[in-house]
Structures are given as structure tokens and as C-alpha cells.
Amino acid sequence: MDQLGTLAETFFNWESMRSAIPDLLTTGVPNTLVLAVSSAVLGTVLGLLLAVAGIARTRWLRWPARVYTDVFRGLPAAVTILLIGVGLAPQGMLIWGPDPYPLGILALSLIAAAYFGEIFRSGIQSVEAGQLEAARALGFSYAAAMRLVVVPLGVRRILPAWVNQLIALIKDSSLIYFLGLMADQRDLFRIGQDAAANTGNESALVLAGLFYLLLTVPLTHLVNVIDRRLRNGREVVEPEAATDPAPVPRRSGTCLTRTSHPSV
pTM of this prediction? Predict the structure, then answer.
């Protein structure tokens, strides 16, 4: 019982959690969302360009896209963040000062672009070849057919995978603490880590993990809903049949047989 009490005190101390809640809500959640959403937007744009280059007819576009994807998918996220955040820090100081967020967002965006590019490429290539042929038969050029027909159809199919990558970005945003953050720049993980280090109790870090779950679990269920809608399509609601069909009117004493007239 003593050991259980010690574990509960170490990980679920209410006083430690309560003292960390204001910083987690007012600083940690907004900063985490800024990092994740900004990286997702920039990574989506770069990923779409990578996907188009990856399926281009010329190898001078395909090969650089393939090399980029292999490199940034193969490197650990922490290594990429340190290489960019520390290696480009002197240039960042000249442009926007000591704020580490722009370089952190750049690093996360470059990582996300490699994954988004593969997601978009698989979605575009899943579109039937007949769609492109039909667009060309209507007079579209190859570029216009890809831009107006094939790419929109492919993007629609990859929404679940895109949301999954957004979830990964929310979690990877915790690695930005490697670059050093000021008090008002801390994300959920850094606030929980600082509180745990100051108090010697891990409850604030557990609470930070619960905040991550509050952000990611709804997105996980959203992925399932989107995937189910895309697989099954919209449900068609059939009109209800009348329970008592209207009776056919009859004329009493009247014969409804058709008489034939002899031709003249």
C-alpha cells in the first residue's frame, strides 16, 4: 500500500497539477497549436509540390523530390530540428532576432513535407487513368488536367492520412524545446518538464500528457469518421412509403371495358 501511495503521490499529485494548469492553458496549448498548425500549412504546400514533382515526366524533377523525401523521412526529427535550429541560428538572429519559433516551424515543415508529399503522391496515383484521359479528350492540357481534375480527386482520398500526420506534428512540436524557449514561448511539454524539475514531482508532466491526449484523440476519431464517409459515401435516405395507398376510385354500375370500333 505504501508503494501505491508513493506512485500516486509522484504521478497524480493534485496540488502540482493545479499549479501547472494556468500555464498549460494560457501558454502551452496556444504555442503547441501555433507550431503544429503553422508547420502543417507550410508542409502541405511543400508536400504538394513534392508530389507533383515526384510524378513528373522529367527525371530532373523526380530525382530531387525522391532524394528530398528519402533524406527527411530517414533522419530523426530531433536531428533535423537541431541541424536547422542551431545551424541557421546566426542567420535567424539577423532576420528576426533570438526567437527560435521560425526555425522550429521551418524544421517541422521540412519534415512534414516529406511525409505529406508521399501521402499526396499516393493519392494522386490512385486516381484512375481514365480520369486523365477523359480530361485530355475534352481539350485540357496535361498540366490543366492534373491541376483541375486528377489532383483534386487524389487530395480528397488522402484526408485521413493527412489528419494522421497533423497528429504526428502536434506530438513532434515538443522537440522544439531543444532550441531553447523563453517563458512565454514554452509548449505543453516544456511547461510540464519545468514544473516537474522544480517540484521533483512528475504530476505536471502527466497533466501535460493529458493535454496532448485532449488534442490528438478527437482528431483520431475524426480520421475514423472521414475514412468511413469516404469508403461508404453519403447515406441516401429513401422516402417513406405510404402505409395506406390511396384507393382507386370506381364508378358504380359503369363498365370500364374498352370497346373496339370497326374501321371504316
Answer: 0.77
